[in-house]
Amino acid sequence: MRRVVNRFEGPLVVLSSSALVFGLIVMISTDSHMSAWVGMEVNMLGFMCLLGVKSVLNMRVLVNYFVFQSFGSTMYLFGSTVVLHCENLNITLLGYFLVHLGLLCKAGLFPFWVWVPSVVNSSGWLVSYLLLGVQKVGPLLLLGVWCTCTEFLSFVVFVMSIMGGLGGAVQNSYRDVLVYSSFVHSAWMLVCLMSSQQLFLFYIGVYIVQLGLVVYYLWRSNSSFMKSGKWSLMVASSLMSLSGLPPLAGFVVKMIVVFCVGGKLVLVFALAGSIAAMFYYLKAVISSILKDYNLSVLDDEDFVWIFIPLTLGLYVWVYYLGRLFL
Asked: Could you tell me which residue ranges the NADH:quinone oxidoreductase/Mrp antiporter transmembrane domain spans (predicted)?
């Protein structure tokens, strides 16, 4: 049986990846509720195939993921049906609320976030990267398009900021740190959605690149907690960028969001969550520097890869300074 699975692993990965990308494209390119639902279902099926092929999931975790995704799809579909066929204003608003809840469930955000840590801890690095980054694009973009209650989104930002900022402080593994970090970044994404879709796409695009660097370095260092020489320093530098520590890319992106959003109260929640999250980021980074810092194992090529996050930050900074003042 194992030999048969290995034989078809390559085609299954290609097929599931194609379904995942196709579903995402449908979600971000349509203005129809039903077409977006079809895109979400195709995307979910592709992702579940990747979960089965590339992960060590037990049946309980896989069923947990499927149940929450199906629940989110059901709420979205029922809410969309109410919105499209009901003329009563109060019932229509209830339908939009169900649509919002369904999309939040699909993205793994409050109040349906409990399945995310278990899936990430049972998955490979590629699946974890997709779940914490790429899989948020479609549902959150649809949430921004059909959002009718900014007060509700502000409450979600408040809860996600507290949960991500304080929940990660007691975590001791990289996977859990990245999960709770993604909650804080998701709060920033919602703040961006309240301003404009372009700002949201810019923020999540930079976040996906930064998360990809962290995941790649962790994969190369065997995911042990700061035990390898040069890779531990690379992980530390990419984590500092992801945390928003100046003058790296994460800090620059957050400053741009602050300038674009202005003095909204919801921005205070996101900033507080980032400040709290910086504690467990710095705990991991300082642990690496004090225990395993060894420049003798690094060469010039290693330093180039270490400062990729810094380079990205400087390029983004220069580009937006030009856009603002030229």
From this structure: 33-279
